[in-house]
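Example record

Each entry pairs one chain with its bound ligand, NAI.
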Amino acid sequence: MERYSDETVIVTGGLRGIGAEIAKRLYSAGASVAIIDMADEENAPEAIENMHLTSEGGNVCRYYKCNVADFEQTKRTVTQIAKDMPKVTMLVNNAGITRDGLVMMMSEQQFDDVISVNLKGAFNMIKHCSRQFIKNKCGRIVNISSVSGLSGNAGQANYSASKAGLVGLTKTVAREFAAKNITCNAIAPGFIATDMTKDISAENNPLAAQIPLGRPGEPADIAQAAEFLLSASYITGVVLRVDGGLGM
Ligand code: NAI
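C-alpha cells for the complex follow.
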C-alpha cells in the first residue's frame, strides 16, 4: 500500500519550479495532488504532462485555476477540491512572486501585490483548508518562506516582509491548531535554480559564491524537505533552512 493512498495534498503554484517538483514527489509517494496555479485550464494538461508524474498507486492529479490572493476564489476552490478528491490532509503554500526594487523606488502596487500573493495567499489557503483538516483529523501544512525573510535582502523589502510574515503565520497556526493534530512548518530555501531566479546567474550573484555546499539548490532539494515535513508527526512551528549552508 502506498504511503498516502487515500490522501490529497494541495500545492499552490504547483505548475512549475519548486511547486511542480513538490507535486511530483508527493504523487510518486502515492498522494493525490491538487495543483493550484494561475494558468488557464486548457494550458494546464501540457504543463502537467511535462512534469512526468509517475506512481504505482491509483492516485490522481487535478488542476485548479485559482488566484491564491483572492479570498472568495480560494474558498470556492478548496470546497471543490474536497468534493473531487480523496481526503485533504496536506497543504503546501508555495505560490509566490517577486516585484523587486529599492524602497525609495518601490510603488505601493509593488508592495501590495507581493504581500497579497505571498502572505495573504497562504492565510487564505490555511483558513479554508483548516475545516477539511479538522474534519479529517489530520493536517500537515508547509509554507515556503525564504532566507530573504530571515536576513532581509536589499531590493526586496516587499518580498522579505512577506516571507518574514510567513514565519509568524507558521508559528501562530502551529500553536492554534496543535491540539487538532494539525502541524504547520516553514521551509526557507536559499538560492534555487528556477524561472524566478533565471535572471540572477550563479556567477553574478555574490551570495552564490558563499554557498558552503558549492552549488545553487535544485527544486528537488526543496521537495525532499517538504515531503519530510509533510510526513513528520511531532515537528511543528519550525523554520527549516534549505540553503546549502548559506545561513550558518
Ligand atoms: P516560480 O516563479 O518558478 O513559480 C511560482 C509559481 O507560482 C508559478 O507557477 C506561478 O504561476 C504561481 N503563482 C504566482 N502567483 C500566483 C497566484 N496569485 N496564485 C496561484 N499561483 C500563483 O517560483 P519558484 O522559484 O518555483 O518559487 C516557488 C516558491 O519558493 C515561491 O514562494 C518563492 O518565493 C519561494 N522561493 C524561491 C527561491 C528561489 O531561489 N527560486 C528562494 C526562496 C524561496
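The chain has a mean pLDDT of 95.
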